[in-house]
Amino acid sequence: MHPTRRQLLRLGAGGFVAAGIGLLELPAIASGGAAGGWGEGAVRGRVRAPRFRDERFVITAYGATPEDATAGIAAAISACHRAGGGHVVVPAGVWYTGAINLLSNVDLHLEEGATLRFSTDPAAYLPVVRTRWQSVEVYNYSSLIRAEGQTNIGITGKGVLDGAGDNEHWWYLIGSGQYGWHTGLPNQRADWAELERMNNEQVPLEQRVFGAGHYLRPSFIQPFRCTNVLIEGVTVKDSPMWTIHPLECRNVTVQGVTVRNLGPNGDGCDPESCTDVLIRDCVFETHDDCIAIKSGRDADGRRLGLPSRGIIVEDCTFISGGAAVAVGSELSGGVEDVYVRRLHAPADPAAEEAYLQWLLCVKSTSTRGGYVHNVDVRDVDSRAWMYRPVEITFSYQGGGDQLLYPDVRDIRCDRVRVARAERVYRVVGAETQHIRAVSITNSRFDQVAADAVVQYADDVTIRNVRIGTS
Q1: Which of 248, 273, 371, 414 gets the highest tally of CB atoms within 10 A of its CB?
Q2: Per-residue pLDDT tens for 305-330?
Q3: What pLDDT score was predicted for residue 358?
Q4: CA separation for the pair 190, 209 (Å, rounded)
Q5: Mean pLDDT score across all residues of the chain
Q6: How far does Cα 72 stand from its chain's mean position?
């Protein structure tokens, strides 16, 4: 459970001013990036949202009713796909549905005033499908909206996707009283422990079958091994777990989306083992990380070796959450070439719990392995309170008992303003694996309560940074 903003502000003053700072006059550091096709411009040039035929397939024409739209939506998607593609239209109103499976060249379009409210019955998400749960391969419940191996798919419009998660449905399965769990209710702890064992021992995937009789909550939107994905305009709320989870996809655009999910593990958007992703003009109000870039956990991630690469995040607003942008903690397949631009976190003094823990958090443990190379963050304005705007740590959630630390290097933050923070940065590697080449430049942190921390890190540059005291 995250501490409240009030609890952390009680840590008091004791900030410092970095020696030799100027007045934010130095030019920005040039963006890094691998030579060839992985610079920011190259990634932008490849990300292209799919287009769809101008044909409408209204779900009511295929038998959908407000009380049960599941079969009608499936029939409309099938008809649209067979016809060569177009828009499956959800009209205004509230429509109750189970799992939705998208097919190639189909855009699921929610008109203004439309709400798709998803079933809270786990049986609605059977049979089990191949997926990852907290980045470990498994056969588990389908996500609420899923596509596997499809090309040119969309979820668009001005409507609402309601996962119906709350303390009576889905969320309590984490096993915490904060989310409604109490003695006598089932929870996910035993299943998660067993799945982690299977990962550590590399039990064959075919033997990792959960689903019915188990309690691993599904994610909301999961395109799996898809190419050319567009999620645009919709509001997505109250997911059972992770909200938008593109997995092993290429060319993904998430833009103009609002995510509201205050549930446990309620991340906003988690591209995992994806290539060429643009997350733009989105609003996040979460309890967990807003955006978390992932690539597999521990032995599975190292075996698969599928990095996340070429990720752009820009012009997004963050109301609350863990990290605005996190890398990890599941990063065993590697993460590289991440470009973060023009983020905004407004102050909300009326909301006691509204805060961000981090602007950027690269988090891992001694069991992960993998790497993080070339993360470039620029032009951030946060008036909200933050715990640690920048943190790189190898001891997330206590660390582990191995020595498989990731290789982390070339992390840059430039032109960042944060109004209030407990600590500006914390960069802590390991004695056997130092973090390399971290810079914070041309930035301003107005009220800071505690000193920064750097351990087991080489070539850390803090230049032209103003740090005030709280």
Answers
A1: 273
A2: 999 999 999 999 999 999 999 999 99
A3: 97
A4: 14
A5: 91
A6: 31
Q: Is the pTM of this model over 0.85?
A: yes
Phi, psi at residue 200, to the nearest 5°? -60, -35
| Calpha distance 92→380 (Å, rounded) | 37
Q: What is the dihedral of CA 396, 402, 403, 409, to 10 degrees?
A: -30
Q: Which of 165, 358, 329 lies closest to 263 in space, CA to CA?
A: 165
